[in-house]
Model the fold of this input.
Amino acid sequence: MIIVDTENLNKYVDSLCNLEAPIVERVDSLFCLTAFEEIGAVDGMIKAFNVEKKSELLMHEICYALGQMDKTPDHVAKITSFLEMLLETE
Done:
């Protein structure tokens, strides 16, 4: 069981975006971010998606986690905008 430090969103964003961190730590951080209500959690996932270049599986997991973040209209708008941007770049 993972205990999420809900006082430290940036710790999880930094870990998820750290390309040198073990993949297990990065994935744990990703799913810890789903516990946050702040829009910064969505921003952090999007940042990590844009930083990640090697692991298509992690990119898939980030998109999956984003799909679970429909907590507020602001979350949905940000996620929709991100997905539209992805579709436009393909």
